[in-house]
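Researcher: Sequence recovery benchmark, item below. Answer with residues only.
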C-alpha cells in the first residue's frame, strides 16, 4: 500500500531529490486499530526537521494524510517520506520547491518477545558517527552510516549495535536510542553533534519522573557503561529492550527498566 501526495501511487520521479541527494526526512509510525501511534510526537519531529532543512511542507496536510492512511492500513507500520521534490542537476534548492510526500504501508516487523523479556546483546560497532550539528537529531534520509554499521555483524545473537562518535562518546543504537540507569538517574546521550532524537526517547524522558528517576541528557564517555546499573535501548516500534551485554560488560534486567516497561504498557494505544 503506497500513497504519493495523498493519492494511491507506486512510482517516484527519477529526478526526485530524495533519491539523488537524500534531501528529505522520514518517520516510521506504528499503526494500531487504524490509528497512528504517537502522531503528535512524530509530527513535531518532522516539523522541526522541515524548518531546519527549509522544506516548505504543510504539516496540517501531512497529519490529515497520515490519519487517512492509517485508517486504510488498519494495522502495521506507516513509513512517511518527505523530500524536496523533483529538481534538475545541482545542489541548489529548486525554485520554487515542490515537496513530495510518500506513504508506504507494511506489516509490523516481528520482534522476538524474549528481546523485551530476557534482554539483548549489543554488538560494539567499529563505525564512528560523523559529527554534523546542522543535522543532529533529525531523521533525515542519509542513512549510509547505519547501513554500514549494520553490515558489521550477522550473528543473530546480537539484536542491536552500539554506535559512538569520533571521540568515542556513546550515541545510540543502529536503529534505537540508548539509556543507562545509574542509581536514580536515567541517562541518555546528548544528540547535538549526531544521532537521531527518537520519539520513544522523548516519551521515556517524560516518564522518568513518574518512575522516580531524574532524567539527565549529557555527553557520555565510553566508561559510562562500566558504571551503569542497568542499560536498555528503545524504539517506537518495539518499546524497550533491556541490554544484558556489550563486549565484555554485562548487566541484569533491572527493576527500573521493568518499571519503565510497565509504565509504557499502561499508556493509551493511541498516545
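Model:
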Amino acid at each position: 500500500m503506497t500513497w504519493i501526495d495523498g493519492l494511491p501511487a507506486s512510482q517516484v520521479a527519477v529526478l526526485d531529490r530524495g533519491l539523488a541527494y537524500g534531501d528529505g526526512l522520514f518517520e516510521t509510525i506504528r499503526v494500531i486499530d487504524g490509528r497512528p501511534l504517537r502522531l503528535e510526537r512524530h509530527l513535531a519531529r518532522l516539523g522541526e526537521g522541515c524548518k531546519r532543512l527549509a522544506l516548505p511542507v504543510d504539516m496540517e496536510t501531512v497529519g490529515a494524510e497520515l490519519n487517512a492512511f492509517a485508517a486504510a492500513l488498519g494495522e502495521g507500520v506507516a513509513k512517511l517520506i518527505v523530500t524536496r521534490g523533483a529538481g534538475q542537476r545541482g545542489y541548489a534548492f529548486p525554485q520554487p520547491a515542490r515537496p513530495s510526500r510518500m506513504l508506504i504501508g507494511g506489516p509490523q516487523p516481528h520482534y522476538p518477545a524474549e528481546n523485551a523479556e530476557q534482554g539483548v546483546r549489543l554488538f560494539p560497532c567499529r563505525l564512528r558517527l560523523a559529527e554534523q550539528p546542522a543535522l543532529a537529531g533529525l531523521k533525515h534520509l542519509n542513512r549510509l552510516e547505519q547501513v554500514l554499521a549494520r553490515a558489521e555483524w550477522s550473528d543473530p545473537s546480537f539484536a542491536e549495535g552500539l554506535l559512538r562518535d569520533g571521540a568515542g562518546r556513546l550515541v545510540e543504537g543502529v536503529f534505537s536510542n540508548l539509556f543507562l540507569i545509574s542509581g536514580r538517574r536515567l541517562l541518555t546521550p546528548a544528540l547535538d553533534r549526531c544521532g537521531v532524537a527518537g520519539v520513544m526517547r522523548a516519551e521515556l524522558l517524560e516518564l522518568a519522573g513518574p518512575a522516580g528517576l531524574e532524567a539527565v541528557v549529557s555527553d557520555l564517555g565510553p566508561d559510562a557503561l562500566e558504571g551503569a546499573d542497568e542499560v536498555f535501548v528503545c524504539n517506537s516500534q518495539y518499546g524497550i529492550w533491556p541490554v544484558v551485554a556489550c563486549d565484555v560488560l554485562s548487566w541484569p534486567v533491572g527493576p527500573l527498566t521493568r518499571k519503565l516497561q510497565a509504565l509504557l504498557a499502561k499508556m493509551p494505544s493511541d498516545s
